[in-house]
Design brief:
Number of helices: 9
Distance between the termini: 43 Å
CATH architecture of the largest domain: Orthogonal Bundle
Helix content: 55-70%
CATH superfamily of the largest domain: Winged helix-like DNA-binding domain superfamily/Winged helix DNA-binding domain
Largest sheet: 2 strands, antiparallel
Strand order of the largest sheet: 1-2
Structural class: mainly alpha
Shape: elongated
Number of strands: 2
Order of helices and strands: HHHHHHEEHHH
């Protein structure tokens, strides 16, 4: 794998020995040079993945001609609809964390774009069900679905132990509480 100048610069920024705040912590852990290099390599790979994932999302949004929340809405409706779940605007609003009027605007936009249809709910006459159109389902499968299949193939190529280690690492990173830095530093700004 060829490294770019940006990769090397980013890698240097991840080196805890270069950052005063974390250099002491590395020594406290008693890590060898090789172990620190492995950790820096891990963080560099994670950083590259963040950038690549964002680029894939942006490419999918451009292809589908949808914004981020619109894409999340289409994915949600497709995902739940696959197993027969009837999706309502209330469910979609809760999933996206937006208000009723905001989900109505989003659905109006998606419907005008030919991405979804609102149909009568089969059991609740007061509600409408949200359904992704066949054309959007096919486009999403051809773009987002293909990207997901490629990522799945990479995960499938790992051994069980490698997948478990990756899952433990990513879960531990995701479980870190958000630190309100102002309170932690004692410095007011």
């Amino acid at each position: 794998m060829m490294r770019t100048d940006e990769d090397l610069e980013g890698r240097a920024m991840l080196d805890p020995r270069r950052l005063g705040a974390s250099s002491r912590l590395v020594e406290e852990h008693g890590l060898s040079e090789a172990e620190v290099e492995e950790i820096i390599e891990l963080f560099a790979a994670l950083r590259r993945w963040h950038r690549t994932a964002a680029a894939h999302n942006e490419a999918s949004q451009r292809f589908m001609k949808l914004g981020e929340n619109d894409m999340r809405a289409v994915r949600y409706v497709m995902s739940l609809g696959r197993d027969g779940t009837i999706v309502t605007s209330t469910m979609l609003a809760a999933h996206l964390g937006i208000s009723g009027p905001s989900v109505t605007k989003l659905l109006d936009r998606l419907e005008r774009g030919g991405h979804v249809r609102r149909e009568p709910h089969p059991t609740d006459r007061r509600a409408l069900s949200i359904v992704v159109t066949d054309a959007t389902r096919e486009s999403a499968t051809a773009s987002v679905g293909r990207d997901h299949a490629r990522r799945f193939a990479i995960a499938a190529s790992l051994s069980r132990e490698e997948r478990q280690a990756a899952t433990r690492f990513l879960s531990a990173m995701a479980d870190l509480p958000v630190i309100e830095h102002e309170a932690a530093s004692g410095v007011e700004r």
